[in-house]
Design goal:
Layout lengths: L1 H5 L1 H20 L7 E7 L2 E7 H24 L9 H26 L6 H19 L14 H5 L1 H27 L5 H26 L2
Antiparallel strand pairs: 1-2
Helix pairs in contact: 2-3, 2-4, 3-4, 5-7, 7-8
Length: about 210
């Protein structure tokens, strides 16, 4: 629990940030429809929820996920290998997602012309760059990083795979950002790139194990 004690202030702040969408929802309560769009695809809104759940339920769910991530990571059997900076990224990840989701949801339901695909792709691209920057700094653990059978079994495999993955994720994230800013907002492209970012490090790790004995 030492990691939680050292980051107690950050945990409190990020938990509050997770719940900020409730305050925003209360402020605009009378202007929001009783049935709010809460799920979106490239074709627009395709899922709806009651206003109570949209305003109160979603932020609470995000808070629960946030606390689970914080506690599970802090209790990792190899928590001594977790870089403090990476743990702070973990603490801020879900709160930032909560704010982005709230911004899109409220803007759309208040009648503003929101390009959901543009925002989502730009967010995923930026997130990929951030993750790619931190991957090479991650040491062996069970909660953060590219956790394949071979990376967990061999430290050299872990280190090489994370260096490769870090470069790959930064390039992939930059590609998503550039495509988005150039007006390519078909989400299929983003899904394809994200799938490659997940699959290629897996293949590379397996190759290191099979060909290099790592």
């Amino acid at each position: 629990m030492q990691m939680l004690k050292e980051n107690k202030k950050t945990l409190i702040i990020t938990s509050i940030v997770n719940l900020l969408p409730i305050l925003i929802g209360v402020i605009f309560w009378d202007k929001l429809p009783d049935q709010m769009a809460t799920h979106f695809s490239s074709g627009g809104a395709d899922g709806f929820s009651g206003k109570n759940f949209a305003v109160f339920g979603i932020p609470v769910v995000m808070l629960v996920l946030h606390l689970i991530a914080a506690f599970v990571t802090a209790n990792d059997p190899r928590r001594q290998n977790i870089n403090p900076k990476i743990y702070r990224v973990v603490l801020w990840l879900i709160p930032v997602i909560s704010l982005v989701v709230a911004a899109m949801t409220y803007s759309y339901n208040l009648g503003y012309d929101v390009d959901i695909s543009f925002i989502v792709q730009l967010f995923f691209g930026t997130l990929s760059v951030v993750i790619g920057n931190y991957l090479p700094k991650a040491r062996q653990n069970y909660t953060i990083g590219l956790k394949f059978p071979w990376t967990l079994a061999n430290e050299e495999n872990w280190n090489r795979t994370h260096r490769f993955g870090g470069i790959l994720w930064m390039i992939g994230g930059a590609a998503i950002i550039v495509l988005t800013l150039c007006g390519v907002t078909q989400f299929d492209w983003t899904i394809g790139i994200l799938a490659a970012l997940a699959l290629l490090p897996f293949i590379y790790s397996a190759w290191l194990h099979a060909a290099k004995g790592l």
